[in-house]
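lol ok so funny story. i was supposed to be doing the assay writeup but got distracted and ended up predicting the structure for this chain instead. priorities right. anyway since i did it might as well share w the group, maybe its usefull for someone
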Amino acid sequence: MKNKPLIVVVALTAVLAGTWARAEKSTLAIGPVKTSPSLVESVKKDGRTDQMGQVVEALDGQLIDRINATRKFELVSRSDLKELHVEMAYANSEQLKEAGVKYLLVTSMDGFKDYGEASVIGETGQSATIRVLSVSIVAKIYDVTTTKLLESANFQVRKEQRLLSLKRGNENSALSDELLVGVAREMADKVANRVADVIFPAKIISKIDKQVTINRGDGTGIAVDQIWNVYAPGKELKDPDTGEILGVQEVLVGKLKVTSVLPKVSTADILGEDTGIAEGAIVRAPQSPH
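and the output, tada:
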């Protein structure tokens, strides 16, 4: 597969002060999804090169769509970045800096399985195939200005689909495409939400009595009845050996239960005792298997 140009995303932050004011922008470059040579060879032996290519192509587009859907980013077309590719993350990081890029998202597919198992349905003797599609992705977020790795995470998506033998070829083909795109969409959701959480952790933007408003809305992984933890930001954490800033201390001050999800924000009720929940507090969803 040919290399594709980076897509540049400009991150927007805003401050509520009667009207929305746009803060300084940070730029996120999204590199094309890569596949390792060993995976390419393995998939080729299984005769699934076209299927993997469809997933990679769909994931390229879905990543852009889902990151945009977090509403933390604005997609910007930059013709002067056409020559920049994900391989330049280290070797030519100065070019990325000159282009105004602050963050770089690098994704690589390290696992792809597409297989089927035949089965017989009931007493009819009708045969069916259970198709299983499993994809694994490693996503890395770099701070281009420091060349430091901010986050590296592995995500897996597995889906199954039953294809009946009585269906005509074009019908099964449509089902096949649906499965491939579905896997890409779910994977893109996972990656996009992680990007948003790493660069812009969810925060409380309003508190009235025991109800709060969170700056996360529909399409960002938040859902009604979820229980989220609330953390008050503490002192800056520094590695005593290297002097590297490791982040900011987070002190657990309470829990929330999400009650409604709107397009741009969500509301939640404070559970139990409030030991310091305030506007600006960081909220994190419960961790789940990738």
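Confidence is low (pLDDT under 50) at residues 12-23, 76-91, 166-172. The chain has five helices and 15 strands.
back to the writeup now i swear
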